[in-house]
Amino acid sequence: MTSLVPGHAAVASGLSRERGGWWHQFVCPAHGTELSHEGIPGPVPPADGVRCPHGCRVDSEPVRGAWLVLSHQAWARRIRALAHRAARTGSAADRAEAVSLLAAYAAVYAEVTGGGENERAQDWMLRGRLFHQALTDAIWSVSIGHAVWSLAESAPELAEALRPVLPVLDATAEAARAARDSLVAEGRFTSNYTAWLNASGRVCARAAALVRGGADGAPAVSVADDEWLAGEHGQLAHALAATTRGGWEWEASTYYHGFVLRAYLLSLRGTDPADLPERARDRVVAMIDVLAGLATADGILPAVHDGPYLRAPLALEWTELCALADGFVGDAGLGAVAARARREAGDGDTLEDELRALPGGWFAGPPLAVARPAGAAVRVDEEVGISVVRAGDIHAVLDHGPHGAGHGHHDKLALYLYGRRTPWQPDPGQVPYGHPAWRDHYASAVAHPCVRVDDGDPAEAAGILLARDERSLTVEVRGDATSWYDGVRAVRHVVVGDGYLLDVVAATADRPRRLTLGLRPDVPLQVRLDGDVARTAWDGAERLDGTHAARATGADGPVPVRPVVVPGPGPADDPQRERAHVDWTAHDATAALWVSVFRTGPGAGAELLGLDTAEVRVRRADGRVDVHPLPAEVAHG
What we know:
Layout: H1 8-12, E1 50-51, E2 57-58, H2 61-89, H3 92-113, H4 134-154, H5 166-185, H6 192-213, H7 227-230, H8 235-241, H9 254-267, H10 278-294, H11 312-328, H12 335-345, H13 351-357, E3 378-381, E4 386-391, E5 394-399, E6 414-418, H14 436-443, E7 451-453, E8 464-469, E9 472-478, E10 488-497, E11 500-519, E12 525-530, E13 533-538, E14 544-554, E15 557-559, E16 561-569, E17 578-600, E18 607-611, E19 615-619, E20 625-629, H15 632-635
Antiparallel strand pairs: 1-2, 3-4, 4-5, 5-6, 7-11, 8-9, 9-10, 10-11, 11-17, 12-13, 13-14, 14-15, 14-17, 16-17, 18-19, 19-20
Helix pairs in contact: 2-3, 2-4, 2-13, 3-4, 4-5, 4-6, 5-6, 6-9, 8-10, 9-10, 9-11, 11-12, 11-13
């Protein structure tokens, strides 16, 4: 390995000199929790195994491979932060360290990959070279490419020192193209992988051009002439194909939505947002707006479908995305998300600050000025079936659309409840995929606050929106031999009241079944029966109170609906965190109706008075009674 600067060997000695595996296997086999990041970034995993939060030490080949993924990615992120800082400050020391690490990585890459695919990848994977997956290679190479880009662009007279990195940039761009072609041939162009493969190709190709241009610089390339952006299978085409008109990434996963959006923004470096084709430009803005609309007032992003519930490295990615979004569109609305992510990331790093202070900005033009309507109490994306309902300080998310393919969960008609900063009943998220048992659990119906039938998981299903107005919406899912629960239908009707949220759920079955509606809190929950009404108190930074009533019928008339409190696992960041789960179950029922009124604040008013077959009555804090007629689909099954 050739040393480019004094101290190169010492700087490079901490790099991992082994191929990485699949990061999703970085999970404790006993507890389902992600393992400790001790020693990251570094050369090798801890000799005595990697620690889990519950005291285990895990030393297996898959875990070692996952640790190496995280270490390589952390090194790449560190190099990128150094390069951006060197570009901003002109620091010779930061530049020397970044160049040294890049040159060392060029040698490591050539040594460990040999220019070929990683033969240890699982059969289903799109194979990478430095890692098991081509996707992981792309993510890593985007950081490497941006580091080279910053160094070469900020001091073109010093670009010659970066020539040893050219084989890595060329190889990763070539690999990205081959992997993208494979996805296209398989009819999987809309895969979230494509966004990162395009980002890798565009960033690495541009970085290589800047190095080769040297002191003369690299010729500017317009968006229209950049195949990675404007080509048939480029980033702008992907943005239109893989998202809804409302801006959601088609899998309706918060994590993968942000994952894809971040790839888009990273690949658009050096472009003027105003110069992008209007439809693609507007779609990226809509994707940013989706996150702003999904987040609570204090910046909680509900972990809809697959994705970590809470994870410090992911929090760093959110801070990065928020910085890029602020450069793309004015008033992006993600300030609270960024602030919360900084708190969750802990010590973190300086990358967000460097992105915000990059000389000349990330984009070549100012943020777009976009007029937006005032926030609605009910916001619906009919294509993915994710609705956000705001009732005072209650922030509710209702999942009622298509399953979401491989990243979907059995959560049809689930209702998630948040305060400004309290996850009362959150989407629980998902563990690293390498733990099949806990992954199955968090994808299951029992993990979500939704309707279950006979305690089994349904088939994949797509619900539909029946009706909506400014203060309510009604959604439905129907089962048949291939969808959801055969012979069962459920409807959920959510209303924004004055000082409360009304939730009405009805289920009907073609034969006697066990019909259950679940509550799944992530805060201490108290449940108290008061005659035919149950009262719940949800603790946290903010208080939520609920009153609940239910009725059910079977083949021979009324059947009881009993709330049963059972211990259950908390959200997916730690399956060992025990929470009180509530199941409202009617045995041998052909129809069931559950009604809840939620309100916030100590001693909050507004409570459920009663219900009959046609209406629900709610007494407000001022003593007046609201009468809510039930939609025909609810009242008559």
